[in-house]
Structure formats: structure tokens, C-alpha cells
Write a structure and sequence with these properties.
Length: about 675
Amino acid sequence: MLRMPTTTTENFGARKGPKIAALVVVLIVASIALFTVVGVEDVDAKSTITLSKSVVDMKDNSFDSSVIATFSEVADGYTVEVSSSSNAVSVTASAIENKKSTITVTSGTISSSTGKITATIKVQLNDKTTSPPSKTFTVNVTVGVKSVEIVNESGQSITGKKITLDTAAEKTVKAKFTPTNAYNKNVTWTSSEPSVATITDGKIKALKEGTTKIRVTSADASKTDEITVEVKDIHVTSVTLDPSTASVKMRHQVTLTATILPADATNKNITVSIDNTGLIKKVSQTLSGNKVTIVLEGIPGDKEGTATITVTTEDQKKTANSTIKVERVAVTGVVLKEEAEELEVDEEKTLTYEISPKDATNLKVTWASSNTSVATVDEKGHVKAVSPGTSTITVKTDEGNFTDSCAITVLKTYTIMGTIDGSGNVLNPETLVVKIQEISAKGLYPSFSVLALFQESVSMSSDIVHALQKAKGGEMAIVTLNGSIYFDEDAIDNIDASGKTAGITFTEIPPETYPKFGECYVFEISMTKDGQKNPTSFGSAGPKIAIPHELAEGEDAAKLKVALVYGDGDALLLRNYKFVTDEEEGESAVVFEPPHMSTFMYMFHDSEYISSAGFDIVFVALFLVIVLGLGGGVAFLEFHPVASEKFMNLFDNPNKPPKKPRFPGRSRKNEYDDYYNNDYYR
């Protein structure tokens, strides 16, 4: 109640009189009424509801009182009202005490085939307002497992709770639930003796003879059931071995087959015994189904004979026998695959032989060298070259004394390999020079080789070239990215080694550089001195050049033409060239011998030759062959022969009178027929 200050009331009444006092009383009553209305609205304001759970999981035919409703505001006369969305779930609420009410949920029998229903429970606080507060929670009711039983695949009970299985057999069982609409039908299967039988997802697998208990346990309520499983072996009743008699040659094989009955016998293991292990041996033994395949091999020896093969089953010890006759195969000859071989000093090679027939029993041989100072041979046919000369290596069979031989020629040539750096420079020149000198001092011919498979250029110290020029029989082979160059003793003499270094450059040129040649292959090959191109004429003693080439579709080796190309695009058709194929190695190449280094072109075109009779011989000798672009082919102008000595002088210097030509380092004979005929034309 609102109280007005006494002093205020009294002063007010004294000054204004009775009418004023009455007005004050009316105001006071109105104030009291106003405050009374405000107080009622505070009490009737909405309360909030808090539930201890939002979801309740429970079984059928049970109750749950775990949900507590808590109210933020309560007053006298407030009540709690609850309701369920499902007839299978009933709900009650206790009276409010300390702003709380206990909600009790009771489930009945669930008839759903799924074994589960869901109900929504509504909790409402009747707080005397037009919109009382409420809250809901969910109740999941599932049908619980009352019992579980192990049944067969058809769902029928297992008689006597016992089944009998053969070893390795399998059988499937199932779990049957009561009630049938139980919600959680998960189970766990176990075997008391897993070494006897195992069970996985209801599938029993019999492993060995014995007894075990198979148990099922439900995940819901841990209900159990079990059966007894007895596993029995299927015993072997017999075994046979086929063929019962057989013959086999030494080093050959024979196959026997053991058949075990019954086919589904549990233990099909057998042992194989041989009474004469010096004649025959077991190679393999394989089981497939109820059959065992046994592979035997005759052992080579001097005497033939027989052996008894016995198989014994591990189960029941059943046996079967087979008699095998082991025969020899006589030697009728021997052949060496190598008829003749050329080796360098210290080079080694193993010769290969074949005895006839291939299945001969005795494969023993002996080896001999007719000249051990030239070549030796060991008991395995491994030949080692000792010194230049010839020797005959003979192989002889132990049985029959059959022989064959290979002629070994040990060359005076001795290969010395040079190594290069990434730029194609030959390394360790001092060591190589010493090696060349040592080989030459022994009377051998040093053959210097360089493999530059990833470089177009090779450069070496001129000291190496000098050493080869001084050595008798010195030669050199350089293999580059684009081709190989071979210098024999005479060609090496014509290498200019007056600088610090000498070398070779072997470059492929795009064929479109010379369009009038048509389809062709162009290479520039140069000698170098101190890293610069060094024009070099070899005369009749030039190197041999080989360019690897695999014939493309439409190319015919018989139509090969090789020409020397001049800077202005004219070309000289060389005569001394050929297409070489190594059938054994599967390789092929264009090989030719040029008179000097230049740009070379080769093609596989049809060509014509036009005579130059009547042309000025000096003009012809200087300009040689003019290449004419004539339609589909290339026409080469061919000139008529002149005297060899005169031709040589024209080649060297057409303005001087004929003279006997000289080459650096040594003289040549006056006849130049070889030079003339081999290098150019008919």
C-alpha cells in the first residue's frame, strides 16, 4: 500500500478544510488501486521452462522418470499439464515443488514391425495466462530382446543343439529373436575351440577333428544361446600311382600322378620315396584337388637301371608304387659355335659348344690350345690372347672323343681407349702417349679409339697424333654423335698435327640448306687444328667414314649416291661408297672414303650420268662434277679419265707442269690408279 507522509496530509487538511481533505482521500484510494494492478501483472508474467533431457530412450513396457521440468517463476494455483503424441506412451507430472516437477513416461507394448516408435511429450505450465508457456521432449521406445536362439538357415531349431561337420566343411546358422520385432538384432558369435571350428557372421568353418561350442550373444540384454559342433575327418581309403611303369632318359623328366580317394578326404598329404636315389631324383610335388603331380628327373651316370617310386598317404598310411627305368643317351658329336676369332693381346673370350644330341647324358668336355704362347684356354673354354700369332683351340667330348676346333688369330693391333670430358676433349694425353709408345715397343700396333657418343666434336693433344704417326701400324677410330671416322696407318700420316691440338668435327646439316638435291642427308666433317677448321687433303690415303642409317620407307640401298658438296652448292659424286648392314647386330650405315674433309651429301635417288667429253680438262679437274636439278632425279656430270700423274698435278696445282707428287712424311708410287679409280668414278 502506498503511504502518504503524515505531515503532508495534515498540513494539506488544515489549510484547505474538509472538502480538500475528502479529495485527498479519493486520490489515495485511486493510487492504491493503481499499484494493485501493477502488482498483478508482475505475478502473472510468463515463466520459462527448462527440461533436464531433450530425448529419452526406453524399452517397451517400462517407465522412465529421468526428465525434470524446472520453472523460472511459480505462484499459488500454478499447475503442470503433460501430454503424449502416441497412445503407446503415457505421461504424468508431479506437483510443483521448489519450482520443479518430475515427468514420468510409461511405455506399453509396441506392435510396430520396425520395433520402434517415437513420441513427442509436451510439458505446459498453467500460469493463469491466455498463452501458458510449454516445452517438448522426444521419447524413443524400442522393443527389447527377451531371448535369442541359434537356428539353421531355414530358421528351424537345431535338433539336440548339436551339428556334425566334416573337416573343411562349412555351415551357416542364424540368430532367432523373441519377440520377432526386437529392435536391436546385433549379435556376437564365438567358438570355444577356434582351432576346431571358427564362426564369422554365422558361417561355421570346420578346421580339424574335435568339438567346440558355438555361442551367440545379443547386443541388447546380452541374451545367449549355444550349440555343440563336432568336426570329423574324412579318412583316406586308397591311393594309386600312374603310370605304374615308365622309362626316362638321363637328364630328362617323367611325371607320375598319385590319386587319393575319397576325393574329399581331409588329409591328402603324401610322402614320396625313391629306392635308388643315384638314378633318379624328385624335382617337384604339387597337389591339386585329390591328385598329386610328381615330377622326376633321370640323373646322368655311367650305368642304366631301375628305381621304385613309392607314395604313402599321411592319413591311414596307404601306399602305391611305380617302377621307372632310367636310360642313357649316347654322345654323337660336338660343335663349336665359333669357327675363327680374332683377338688382341690380353683380350679374352669364352667359346661356346654344343654336344649332340642335346639331351646326351655325358656332357663333359676337355679343352686344349695348339700354341699356348699365342693363346691359352681353361677348362671352361675361356680363351686368353697372349701374343700375336695363331693357335687352334680344340674341344673334345669325354664320351666318344668327338672334337671340334676354332682358329684363334691374335692380332698385332692393341686397342687403347681414350676418355673425354663434356666438351669432347681427350683426357690424360701424357698417359696415352706413354701407352702408345709402350705398345709400339712390344712390336704391337697401337689402335687409339675415342667414344664421343654425345658430342659432335673431339679434340686431342697433337702429341697423341705424333705418337701414332711414329708407331708402326698405328691407327685411330673416333665415334661421334653423328658418325664414325677411321684412320689407318696411311691416313694418320696425312693428319696435320702441327698445332697444339688436332681434332674432328662431325655436324649434321639441315637438308633444306641445299634444296636442289631434294630428299637427302647432309653432314659437314672437318679436321681442326687448335680448335679451328683445318682444310686437309688425304689424297689416296683418306679415312673411312661411317654414318649410321636405317633405311626409311621407300629408300633402296642399291640407289645410294654419296657426293662431296662445295660451298656454292656444286657436288662431286664419289665412287668409293657402299651401304653396309650388320645382320647379327641389326645395324646399318653409309660408308665412304673421301679425298679430303668437306660437306658430304648422300641420297637414295635415281640418278643419271652425263659425259663431259670435249670439256677442257683443266676446267673439269678444277670444278669436277656439276650437280644439275633435273626433275625427279639428280644428274651428275662425269668426266673422262686422264693420265694419273697429270691428274694428280691438276688436282694439286693446275698451273704447274706435271711432276711426281709428294705427300707429307713419305713418298708414294708413281701409279695413281687406286687413288683415281677408288675415289671418284669409273
